[in-house]
Structures are given as C-alpha cells and as structure tokens.
Amino acid sequence: MLVPRYAFPLAWLFLFFLLDPINYLSERPSILASVSRSDWRPVVTLALGTLLAGFFWEFWNFYAHPKWIYTIPFVGFLKVFEMPLLGYGGYLLFGLEIFAMYHFLAGLTSFDTRRYVQIVPN
Q1: Are the C-beta atoms of residues 85 and 74 closer than 8 Å to each other?
Q2: Which helix (H) or strand (E) holds 41?
Q3: Taken in order 69, 73, 75, 78, is the CA torsion positive or negative?
Q4: How far is CA 5 from CA 48, 57, 58, 68, 89, in A?
Q5: Sign of CA dihedral 5, 18, 24, 103
Q6: Strands 79-80 and 83-84, how do they pair?
Q7: What is the pLDDT of residue 120?
Q8: Under 8 Å between Cβ of 23 and 30
Q9: Contacts 24+ apart (CB under 8 A), 7-13
Q10: Phi/psi at 84 (5° precision)
Q11: Number of alpha carbons in the 13 Å side-chain half-sphere of residue 112
C-alpha cells in the first residue's frame, strides 16, 4: 500500500506465498515440496500451461467487444494482442497460485487431492 507503483506484482502472488507453505507444512501437494526435491516439473508444466491458456485468452480478448486494454507500469510496450509482451510473465506465475489455492481449499474439505494429483520424485 505504501508503494503500489512498484509493489503491484505482489498483489498477483500473495496467495501463492501464503498458501503454498501452508500446503507444504500440511503435507498437501505443494510447489515448495517438489522444488525441495529438485523436481521442477510441476513448476514448468503449470507455468507453460497457463502461458498457453493466457495466449489464447488474449487472442480472444483482442477481437472481443468489450475487451480488456492493459496499462501496466514499466512493461507496457511490445504488445501481443492487447497484452504487453512482458505482461505474459504474470501467466507463468498464475498457474502456481491456482495450484496452491486449489490444494489449500481442497485440504479444508475431506477431498483428498493426493489421490488425483501425484507429485513424486523419479
């Protein structure tokens, strides 16, 4: 709140930084657990998957009426559709946040996510 012009990316990541360590300590699937085992596959697959989904989202947004038009401090140049090229970096992290949020919320219920999502070392 003190420096929103510079701290705005934290608004996109705070749930990941809050929930993934809770998932790790609760022995739920977490990015922290897989990275601590030097298994970067979940990070890479989630990042690339959301980047691909984000590309198509922006493609459809470009031709939509009404549509999003982005104004992003410091990275508002070289647009691909309506999104600045460096803005696509947000999609790389969005998948990690959704993963952490899903497993946190599933852990609050009796739904056992480990039956459906296995992150195991080679």
Answers
A1: no
A2: helix 41-63
A3: positive
A4: 27, 25, 24, 20, 17
A5: negative
A6: antiparallel
A7: 55
A8: yes
A9: 8/73, 9/90, 12/90, 12/93, 12/94, 12/97, 13/93, 13/97
A10: -60, 145
A11: 3
In the structure encoding, which two tokens stand for residue 83, read together?
A: 């999104």
Length of the chain measured in residues: 122
Q: In 3-state terms, what secondary structure has residue 74?
A: coil
What is the pLDDT tens value at each position of the chain, 122 positions in all?
677 777 777 777 889 999 999 999 998 999 999 999 999 999 999 999 999 998 888 888 888 888 777 777 777 778 888 788 777 888 888 899 999 999 999 888 866 655 655 555 55
- The candidate with the shortest Cα–Cα distance to 95, out of 32, 48, 57, 58, is 48
